[in-house]
Amino acid sequence: MSARPLQVKNKKAATRITFLLVPLSGLITDMYIPSLPHMATDLHQPAPAIQLTLTLFLVTYGLAQFITGSLLDSFGRYRLSMLSMALFILSNFFIVSTKNINLIYAMRAVQGITTGFIVVAARAYFVDVFEGNQRKYYLSLISIIWSIAPIVAPFIGGYLQEYFNWQANFYALAIYGTIMLILQWLFMGDTVPAYRPFQLKAIRHNYSIMFNDRLFVYGLLICGMCYGTTMIFGLSGSFIIEHEMNYSPVVAGYATLAMGVAWLCGGLLGKVLIHHTFFPKLYKGNFVQLLVTAFMIGTAWEISNLYSLLIFAFLVHVCVGFIFNNYFAFCLGRFPQIAGMVSGLSGGATFVLTAITSYTVVGIIHPTSQVLLGMAYLCMAIPVFLLLQILIRPLAIKTSNK
Q: Could you tell me the pTM of the whole model?
Protein backbone atom coordinates (compact mmCIF):
# COMPACT_ATOMS: atom_id res chain seq x y z
CA MET A 1 0.00 0.00 0.00
CA SER A 2 1.53 3.29 -1.10
CA ALA A 3 1.73 6.32 1.15
CA ARG A 4 -0.25 9.46 0.46
CA PRO A 5 1.30 11.46 -2.42
CA LEU A 6 2.52 15.03 -2.07
CA GLN A 7 -0.28 17.44 -2.95
CA VAL A 8 0.49 20.10 -5.53
CA LYS A 9 -0.84 22.87 -3.28
CA ASN A 10 1.72 21.89 -0.61
CA LYS A 11 4.73 21.79 -2.94
CA LYS A 12 6.16 25.17 -1.88
CA ALA A 13 5.75 24.44 1.83
CA ALA A 14 7.19 20.93 1.40
CA THR A 15 10.25 22.34 -0.34
CA ARG A 16 10.93 24.73 2.54
CA ILE A 17 10.44 21.97 5.10
CA THR A 18 12.84 19.72 3.21
CA PHE A 19 15.52 22.43 3.23
CA LEU A 20 15.08 22.61 7.01
CA LEU A 21 15.81 18.88 7.20
CA VAL A 22 19.05 19.05 5.18
CA PRO A 23 21.24 20.47 8.02
CA LEU A 24 20.06 17.82 10.54
CA SER A 25 23.29 15.78 10.49
CA GLY A 26 25.37 18.90 11.10
CA LEU A 27 23.16 19.97 14.00
CA ILE A 28 23.47 16.54 15.64
CA THR A 29 27.27 16.52 15.40
CA ASP A 30 28.13 20.15 16.13
CA MET A 31 25.53 21.46 18.58
CA TYR A 32 26.85 19.58 21.59
CA ILE A 33 30.59 19.93 20.83
CA PRO A 34 31.05 22.78 23.39
CA SER A 35 29.45 20.46 25.98
CA LEU A 36 31.82 17.52 25.51
CA PRO A 37 34.08 18.44 28.47
CA HIS A 38 31.05 18.92 30.71
CA MET A 39 29.56 15.59 29.65
CA ALA A 40 32.84 13.93 30.60
CA THR A 41 32.71 15.52 34.08
CA ASP A 42 29.02 14.89 34.70
CA LEU A 43 29.08 11.29 33.46
CA HIS A 44 32.44 10.55 35.16
CA GLN A 45 33.96 9.39 31.88
CA PRO A 46 37.35 10.08 30.25
CA ALA A 47 37.45 12.30 27.17
CA PRO A 48 37.79 9.38 24.66
CA ALA A 49 34.60 7.79 26.02
CA ILE A 50 32.64 11.00 25.39
CA GLN A 51 34.29 11.58 22.01
CA LEU A 52 33.06 8.11 21.03
CA THR A 53 29.47 9.43 21.14
CA LEU A 54 30.33 11.61 18.17
CA THR A 55 32.22 8.86 16.35
CA LEU A 56 29.38 6.35 16.79
CA PHE A 57 26.94 8.77 15.20
CA LEU A 58 29.24 9.34 12.23
CA VAL A 59 29.83 5.61 11.69
CA THR A 60 26.16 4.61 11.87
CA TYR A 61 25.09 7.62 9.81
CA GLY A 62 27.62 6.65 7.17
CA LEU A 63 26.76 2.94 7.15
CA ALA A 64 23.04 3.67 6.97
CA GLN A 65 23.48 5.56 3.72
CA PHE A 66 24.77 2.43 1.99
CA ILE A 67 21.25 0.99 2.03
CA THR A 68 18.85 3.88 2.67
CA GLY A 69 18.70 4.93 -0.98
CA SER A 70 17.56 1.49 -2.13
CA LEU A 71 15.05 1.15 0.73
CA LEU A 72 13.59 4.60 0.08
CA ASP A 73 13.18 3.74 -3.62
CA SER A 74 11.41 0.48 -2.70
CA PHE A 75 9.18 1.57 0.19
CA GLY A 76 8.79 5.32 -0.35
CA ARG A 77 10.26 8.47 1.21
CA TYR A 78 7.39 9.73 3.37
CA ARG A 79 6.68 6.84 5.74
CA LEU A 80 10.32 5.92 6.36
CA SER A 81 11.26 9.56 6.93
CA MET A 82 8.36 10.09 9.37
CA LEU A 83 9.16 6.89 11.28
CA SER A 84 12.82 7.84 11.44
CA MET A 85 11.99 11.31 12.78
CA ALA A 86 9.77 9.84 15.50
CA LEU A 87 12.56 7.47 16.60
CA PHE A 88 15.07 10.33 16.49
CA ILE A 89 12.89 12.42 18.83
CA LEU A 90 12.57 9.51 21.30
CA SER A 91 16.31 8.88 21.26
CA ASN A 92 16.98 12.43 22.49
CA PHE A 93 14.68 11.93 25.47
CA PHE A 94 16.45 8.67 26.33
CA ILE A 95 19.81 10.48 26.26
CA VAL A 96 18.75 13.30 28.61
CA SER A 97 17.10 10.85 31.03
CA THR A 98 20.15 8.67 31.68
CA LYS A 99 23.74 8.78 32.85
CA ASN A 100 24.48 5.31 31.52
CA ILE A 101 27.12 5.83 28.84
CA ASN A 102 26.25 2.56 27.07
CA LEU A 103 22.62 3.64 26.64
CA ILE A 104 23.84 6.99 25.28
CA TYR A 105 26.03 5.07 22.81
CA ALA A 106 23.03 3.03 21.70
CA MET A 107 20.88 6.12 21.22
CA ARG A 108 23.60 7.89 19.23
CA ALA A 109 23.69 4.85 16.93
CA VAL A 110 19.89 5.10 16.56
CA GLN A 111 20.30 8.78 15.70
CA GLY A 112 22.89 7.95 13.06
CA ILE A 113 20.64 5.40 11.34
CA THR A 114 17.48 7.52 11.48
CA THR A 115 19.31 10.63 10.27
CA GLY A 116 20.60 8.61 7.33
CA PHE A 117 17.02 7.93 6.23
CA ILE A 118 15.85 11.51 6.84
CA VAL A 119 18.70 13.25 5.01
CA VAL A 120 18.85 10.86 2.03
CA ALA A 121 15.06 11.20 1.63
CA ALA A 122 15.46 14.99 1.71
CA ARG A 123 18.09 14.89 -1.05
CA ALA A 124 15.89 12.58 -3.14
CA TYR A 125 12.93 14.97 -2.79
CA PHE A 126 14.56 17.58 -5.04
CA VAL A 127 15.28 15.00 -7.74
CA ASP A 128 11.74 13.63 -7.51
CA VAL A 129 9.89 16.96 -7.61
CA PHE A 130 11.95 19.23 -9.88
CA GLU A 131 13.42 18.94 -13.37
CA GLY A 132 15.96 20.68 -15.59
CA ASN A 133 17.42 23.99 -14.46
CA GLN A 134 15.05 24.17 -11.50
CA ARG A 135 16.44 20.87 -10.20
CA LYS A 136 20.02 22.06 -10.68
CA TYR A 137 19.22 25.25 -8.81
CA TYR A 138 17.78 23.49 -5.79
CA LEU A 139 20.50 20.82 -5.71
CA SER A 140 23.16 23.55 -5.76
CA LEU A 141 21.56 25.04 -2.63
CA ILE A 142 21.85 21.79 -0.66
CA SER A 143 25.59 22.07 0.09
CA ILE A 144 25.24 25.74 1.03
CA ILE A 145 22.34 25.10 3.40
CA TRP A 146 24.09 22.04 4.86
CA SER A 147 27.13 24.25 5.58
CA ILE A 148 24.98 26.50 7.76
CA ALA A 149 24.69 23.83 10.48
CA PRO A 150 28.41 23.70 11.42
CA ILE A 151 28.30 27.49 11.69
CA VAL A 152 25.21 28.05 13.82
CA ALA A 153 25.05 24.77 15.79
CA PRO A 154 28.11 25.26 18.04
CA PHE A 155 27.12 28.90 18.56
CA ILE A 156 23.74 27.74 19.90
CA GLY A 157 25.30 24.85 21.80
CA GLY A 158 27.82 27.09 23.55
CA TYR A 159 25.07 29.26 24.99
CA LEU A 160 22.90 26.27 25.92
CA GLN A 161 25.82 24.85 27.90
CA GLU A 162 26.68 28.21 29.48
CA TYR A 163 23.18 28.91 30.76
CA PHE A 164 21.74 25.38 31.18
CA ASN A 165 23.61 22.07 30.85
CA TRP A 166 24.74 19.50 28.27
CA GLN A 167 21.27 17.90 28.24
CA ALA A 168 19.82 21.17 26.88
CA ASN A 169 21.39 20.41 23.51
CA PHE A 170 19.42 17.18 23.18
CA TYR A 171 16.21 18.82 24.41
CA ALA A 172 16.73 21.39 21.63
CA LEU A 173 17.20 18.62 19.06
CA ALA A 174 14.04 16.89 20.30
CA ILE A 175 12.06 20.13 19.98
CA TYR A 176 13.45 20.70 16.49
CA GLY A 177 12.55 17.14 15.51
CA THR A 178 9.03 17.46 16.90
CA ILE A 179 8.39 20.64 14.91
CA MET A 180 9.70 18.96 11.76
CA LEU A 181 7.56 15.86 12.36
CA ILE A 182 4.40 17.98 12.72
CA LEU A 183 5.22 20.00 9.59
CA GLN A 184 5.94 16.82 7.62
CA TRP A 185 2.60 15.34 8.73
CA LEU A 186 0.73 18.52 7.73
CA PHE A 187 2.37 19.33 4.40
CA MET A 188 4.53 16.47 3.12
CA GLY A 189 3.66 13.38 1.12
CA ASP A 190 5.44 10.70 -0.86
CA THR A 191 7.31 11.86 -3.96
CA VAL A 192 8.86 8.61 -5.20
CA PRO A 193 8.08 8.48 -8.95
CA ALA A 194 7.83 4.68 -9.08
CA TYR A 195 8.44 2.03 -6.43
CA ARG A 196 11.35 -0.21 -7.38
CA PRO A 197 11.77 -3.79 -6.17
CA PHE A 198 14.58 -4.27 -3.67
CA GLN A 199 17.03 -6.47 -5.65
CA LEU A 200 20.34 -7.41 -4.02
CA LYS A 201 21.85 -8.69 -7.29
CA ALA A 202 21.45 -5.34 -9.03
CA ILE A 203 22.76 -3.51 -5.96
CA ARG A 204 25.89 -5.71 -5.83
CA HIS A 205 26.49 -5.15 -9.55
CA ASN A 206 26.30 -1.37 -9.21
CA TYR A 207 28.61 -1.37 -6.21
CA SER A 208 31.17 -3.45 -8.13
CA ILE A 209 31.15 -0.85 -10.92
CA MET A 210 31.86 1.96 -8.45
CA PHE A 211 34.54 0.12 -6.48
CA ASN A 212 36.39 -0.81 -9.69
CA ASP A 213 36.87 2.88 -10.53
CA ARG A 214 40.13 3.85 -8.80
CA LEU A 215 39.71 7.63 -9.18
CA PHE A 216 36.33 7.29 -7.49
CA VAL A 217 37.64 5.09 -4.65
CA TYR A 218 40.68 7.32 -4.03
CA GLY A 219 38.33 10.28 -4.01
CA LEU A 220 36.24 8.73 -1.25
CA LEU A 221 39.40 8.19 0.81
CA ILE A 222 40.44 11.81 0.34
CA CYS A 223 36.97 13.13 1.18
CA GLY A 224 36.92 11.03 4.33
CA MET A 225 40.28 12.34 5.50
CA CYS A 226 39.45 15.95 4.63
CA TYR A 227 36.19 15.89 6.57
CA GLY A 228 37.99 13.89 9.26
CA THR A 229 40.38 16.83 9.65
CA THR A 230 37.48 19.04 10.65
CA MET A 231 36.25 16.37 13.08
CA ILE A 232 39.63 16.37 14.81
CA PHE A 233 38.89 19.91 15.91
CA GLY A 234 35.34 18.87 16.80
CA LEU A 235 36.62 16.06 19.01
CA SER A 236 39.47 17.92 20.70
CA GLY A 237 38.97 21.68 20.20
CA SER A 238 36.55 22.21 23.08
CA PHE A 239 38.81 20.26 25.46
CA ILE A 240 41.83 22.40 24.46
CA ILE A 241 39.94 25.69 24.73
CA GLU A 242 37.99 24.94 27.91
CA HIS A 243 40.35 22.66 29.88
CA GLU A 244 43.81 23.74 28.74
CA MET A 245 43.18 27.43 28.01
CA ASN A 246 40.41 27.93 30.62
CA TYR A 247 37.89 29.64 28.35
CA SER A 248 34.11 29.25 28.60
CA PRO A 249 31.86 26.97 26.51
CA VAL A 250 30.66 30.10 24.69
CA VAL A 251 34.21 30.74 23.45
CA ALA A 252 34.50 27.08 22.42
CA GLY A 253 31.23 27.47 20.54
CA TYR A 254 32.47 30.55 18.71
CA ALA A 255 35.71 28.71 17.85
CA THR A 256 33.79 25.80 16.35
CA LEU A 257 31.58 28.31 14.52
CA ALA A 258 34.75 29.82 13.00
CA MET A 259 35.75 26.36 11.74
CA GLY A 260 32.34 26.05 10.10
CA VAL A 261 32.88 29.38 8.37
CA ALA A 262 36.29 28.15 7.20
CA TRP A 263 34.71 25.03 5.70
CA LEU A 264 32.12 27.16 3.92
CA CYS A 265 34.87 29.46 2.60
CA GLY A 266 36.69 26.44 1.18
CA GLY A 267 33.53 25.34 -0.60
CA LEU A 268 32.88 28.82 -2.00
CA LEU A 269 36.49 29.02 -3.18
CA GLY A 270 35.96 25.74 -4.98
CA LYS A 271 32.96 27.22 -6.80
CA VAL A 272 34.94 30.33 -7.77
CA LEU A 273 37.70 28.12 -9.24
CA ILE A 274 35.30 25.61 -10.79
CA HIS A 275 36.66 26.15 -14.32
CA HIS A 276 40.32 25.62 -13.34
CA THR A 277 41.90 22.29 -14.22
CA PHE A 278 40.58 19.78 -11.71
CA PHE A 279 43.50 17.76 -10.32
CA PRO A 280 46.19 20.50 -10.39
CA LYS A 281 44.07 22.75 -8.16
CA LEU A 282 43.74 19.85 -5.69
CA TYR A 283 47.52 19.43 -5.63
CA LYS A 284 47.90 23.13 -4.84
CA GLY A 285 45.23 23.01 -2.14
CA ASN A 286 46.97 20.10 -0.43
CA PHE A 287 50.37 21.85 -0.68
CA VAL A 288 48.96 24.92 1.08
CA GLN A 289 47.39 22.61 3.69
CA LEU A 290 50.80 21.03 4.40
CA LEU A 291 52.51 24.42 4.49
CA VAL A 292 50.03 25.92 6.97
CA THR A 293 50.23 22.80 9.15
CA ALA A 294 54.04 23.00 9.19
CA PHE A 295 53.88 26.65 10.32
CA MET A 296 51.28 25.73 12.93
CA ILE A 297 53.68 23.21 14.46
CA GLY A 298 56.91 25.12 13.88
CA THR A 299 55.78 28.42 15.41
CA ALA A 300 54.03 26.90 18.44
CA TRP A 301 57.07 27.31 20.68
CA GLU A 302 57.10 31.08 20.06
CA ILE A 303 53.41 31.87 19.42
CA SER A 304 50.82 29.64 21.03
CA ASN A 305 47.54 31.11 22.24
CA LEU A 306 43.87 31.00 21.38
CA TYR A 307 44.26 33.37 18.42
CA SER A 308 47.21 31.57 16.82
CA LEU A 309 45.47 28.22 17.32
CA LEU A 310 42.30 29.43 15.61
CA ILE A 311 44.06 31.26 12.76
CA PHE A 312 46.10 28.21 11.77
CA ALA A 313 43.14 25.85 12.23
CA PHE A 314 40.93 28.18 10.18
CA LEU A 315 43.37 28.12 7.25
CA VAL A 316 43.70 24.32 7.41
CA HIS A 317 39.91 23.98 7.36
CA VAL A 318 39.65 26.27 4.33
CA CYS A 319 42.10 23.99 2.49
CA VAL A 320 40.33 20.74 3.35
CA GLY A 321 36.94 22.33 2.62
CA PHE A 322 38.25 23.30 -0.82
CA ILE A 323 39.61 19.81 -1.57
CA PHE A 324 36.53 18.04 -0.18
CA ASN A 325 33.93 20.05 -2.08
CA ASN A 326 35.77 19.62 -5.37
CA TYR A 327 36.38 15.89 -5.08
CA PHE A 328 32.99 15.10 -3.50
CA ALA A 329 31.25 16.79 -6.45
CA PHE A 330 33.51 14.77 -8.79
CA CYS A 331 32.43 11.54 -7.07
CA LEU A 332 28.72 12.42 -7.15
CA GLY A 333 28.85 13.03 -10.90
CA ARG A 334 31.03 10.03 -11.74
CA PHE A 335 28.16 7.60 -12.49
CA PRO A 336 25.05 9.60 -13.47
CA GLN A 337 23.14 6.45 -14.46
CA ILE A 338 23.09 5.30 -10.81
CA ALA A 339 23.10 8.70 -9.13
CA GLY A 340 21.07 7.60 -6.11
CA MET A 341 23.42 4.80 -5.14
CA VAL A 342 26.44 6.99 -5.84
CA SER A 343 25.05 9.60 -3.47
CA GLY A 344 24.50 6.98 -0.76
CA LEU A 345 27.92 5.38 -1.17
CA SER A 346 29.74 8.72 -1.39
CA GLY A 347 28.06 10.11 1.71
CA GLY A 348 28.21 6.83 3.61
CA ALA A 349 31.85 6.05 2.89
CA THR A 350 32.89 9.63 3.64
CA PHE A 351 31.29 9.63 7.09
CA VAL A 352 32.58 6.16 8.01
CA LEU A 353 36.12 7.12 6.99
CA THR A 354 35.73 10.45 8.79
CA ALA A 355 34.76 8.67 12.00
CA ILE A 356 37.52 6.07 11.83
CA THR A 357 40.37 8.39 10.88
CA SER A 358 39.50 11.27 13.22
CA TYR A 359 38.84 9.09 16.27
CA THR A 360 42.01 7.06 15.65
CA VAL A 361 44.25 10.11 15.25
CA VAL A 362 42.78 11.87 18.28
CA GLY A 363 43.06 8.66 20.29
CA ILE A 364 46.75 8.26 19.43
CA ILE A 365 47.92 11.88 19.65
CA HIS A 366 45.51 13.25 22.30
CA PRO A 367 45.66 16.89 21.09
CA THR A 368 45.92 19.22 24.09
CA SER A 369 47.85 22.10 22.50
CA GLN A 370 48.53 23.92 19.24
CA VAL A 371 51.52 21.74 18.39
CA LEU A 372 49.66 18.48 19.05
CA LEU A 373 46.63 19.66 17.10
CA GLY A 374 49.01 20.51 14.26
CA MET A 375 50.51 17.00 14.47
CA ALA A 376 47.00 15.54 14.25
CA TYR A 377 46.30 17.66 11.18
CA LEU A 378 49.58 16.49 9.67
CA CYS A 379 48.55 12.86 10.11
CA MET A 380 45.59 13.58 7.82
CA ALA A 381 47.40 15.81 5.31
CA ILE A 382 50.25 13.41 4.50
CA PRO A 383 48.02 10.50 3.33
CA VAL A 384 46.07 12.95 1.14
CA PHE A 385 49.39 14.10 -0.34
CA LEU A 386 50.48 10.50 -1.03
CA LEU A 387 47.13 9.64 -2.64
CA LEU A 388 47.20 12.72 -4.87
CA GLN A 389 50.85 12.48 -5.91
CA ILE A 390 51.54 8.74 -6.08
CA LEU A 391 48.21 7.11 -6.96
CA ILE A 392 46.00 9.78 -8.52
CA ARG A 393 48.46 11.88 -10.54
CA PRO A 394 49.50 8.98 -12.87
CA LEU A 395 45.85 8.01 -13.37
CA ALA A 396 44.86 11.61 -14.07
CA ILE A 397 47.65 12.00 -16.65
CA LYS A 398 46.72 8.68 -18.26
CA THR A 399 43.05 9.65 -18.41
CA SER A 400 43.78 13.11 -19.89
CA ASN A 401 45.96 11.56 -22.61
CA LYS A 402 43.18 9.28 -23.85
A: 0.80
